Amino acid sequence: MTIQVNDIWVYRIIPIANLEIILNAGMHSKLSGVINEGFVSMGNTEIITERDKRIVKCYPNSVVNNYVPFYFSVRTPMLYNIITGYGVSSYPQQEIIYLCFKLTDLATDNFTWCYTDGNAAKKITKFNNDLNLLVDRIDWNSIKTHDFRDGNGDGDEDRLRKKHAEFLVKDFVPKEYIKRIVVFNETKKTEVSIILDKLGIDVELHVNPANRFYFI
Prior knowledge:
Layout: E1 9-15, H1 19-25, E2 27-28, H2 45-50, E3 67-71, H3 77-84, E4 96-102, H4 103-106, E5 113-116, E6 127-128, H5 134-137, H6 140-144, H7 159-163, E7 166-170, E8 172-173, E9 180-183, H8 186-199, E10 204-207
Parallel strand pairs: 9-10
Antiparallel strand pairs: 1-4, 2-8, 3-7, 4-9, 5-6, 5-7
């Protein structure tokens, strides 16, 4: 599988309910101290708490929750768990959108950043901040596949962890770095368009391209 760094996108899934807050205030890390009134939380509380103490190995004076996290993959096991309520409080899939970013916009001297080869909360996960090594350090088959079962076709029992490889940006990411937004359907595209128009923000909007972002 040929991967070009300049072609890589990274993604952050959020409830539509948080979009206006983010478009006004940008994206802050969990431990930034910034509190946004009305912010809706999703995900596994236990794992989120674990990230409060998981050291970022290439910046050992920081922990994972000092960073704003992004995924390299879409239609992740985490999204599946959120919409099914497996181990977490369920949240409607149609109310979730993707904020999309070009990797090369974030992997610059403007930010303190790194990437992982899997879920950053896991002890065996490796961290790296050398962009030249990124293509080789991430399992792109796990990133691209939609088959993340333990009993998947090639017998890879580490697929779940590797599919959750992350790109981490310390403290804060301004809203201006959002290049695209992906939504579930045309109804949600209209809803997001109203928010963008209200704030005078011009961002590309896409409805589930190639049906690969959502579970349908």
